[in-house]
Specification:
203 residues, two-stranded antiparallel ribbon, 43% helix, globular
């Protein structure tokens, strides 16, 4: 058994983020654009932003929010890439810091085996998930499945993905400039077609 983990926003989705698509659907895009400019490494700002979004969402069911996800632009080759990985014995995981109800929706759509994100209950309680949690979660999952680290692939595009990629034995960076921390470590496929990314992983 092998394991392949993918970030969502910017990796499997291109253009708008999950939060932007939902915000546009409920008439909050202008404010969401402001929130997207905040420092992602400022925990207090991120918590405040998540709490504000949860407040917006309180007037809707989670299913009602999910209906806006179909407008998002998917990276090329996702279906083909995931099929190739499954054919080569990989279990698939979506690992994101965005809302877990959205991550689950895409996991179901692409038949991923596992997923994780920031939890939001129907009564508005947030269970935070942070960039550093990605590597911890993936390492724990690999351990539970008995997958050797050398058989763990990870694909990401932002600083939030670096710890996860540094853990994985087969890391792929699809962002523009390869960070110094991944130099000599990760394969670089900027804005990569996921079918071609999957081919790199299985080779």
């Amino acid at each position: 058994m092998k394991l392949a983990a993918f970030d969502l926003d910017g990796t499997l989705l291109r253009g708008q983020t999950v939060c932007e698509a939902i915000a546009e659907g409920i008439g909050r895009l202008e404010r969401m654009t402001e929130l997207e400019r905040m420092r992602a490494d400022d925990t207090r700002q991120v918590i405040a932003a998540r709490e504000e979004m949860a407040g917006w969402y309180s007037s809707f069911t989670l299913d009602g929010l999910r209906q806006h996800l179909s407008a998002l632009r998917v990276a090329p080759g996702v279906d083909e890439g995931f099929a190739l990985l499954r054919d080569h014995g990989y279990r698939l995981a979506l690992v994101s810091i965005t809302w877990e109800f959205a991550v689950e929706w895409f996991a179901t759509r692409w038949r991923a085996d596992y997923w994780v994100g920031t939890g939001l209950s129907e009564d508005g309680v947030i269970t935070h998930f942070w960039p550093q949690d990605k590597a911890t979660w993936l390492e724990r999952l690999a351990g539970e499945l008995g997958v050797d680290r050398r058989d763990v692939a990870a694909v990401g595009d932002s600083r939030a993905d670096i710890p996860m990629l540094r853990y994985a034995g087969r890391p792929v960076w699809v962002g523009e400039a390869l960070p110094d921390k991944l130099s000599g470590v990760a394969a670089h496929a900027p804005a990569g077609d996921i079918r071609l990314v999957a081919d790199r992983i299985v080779r």
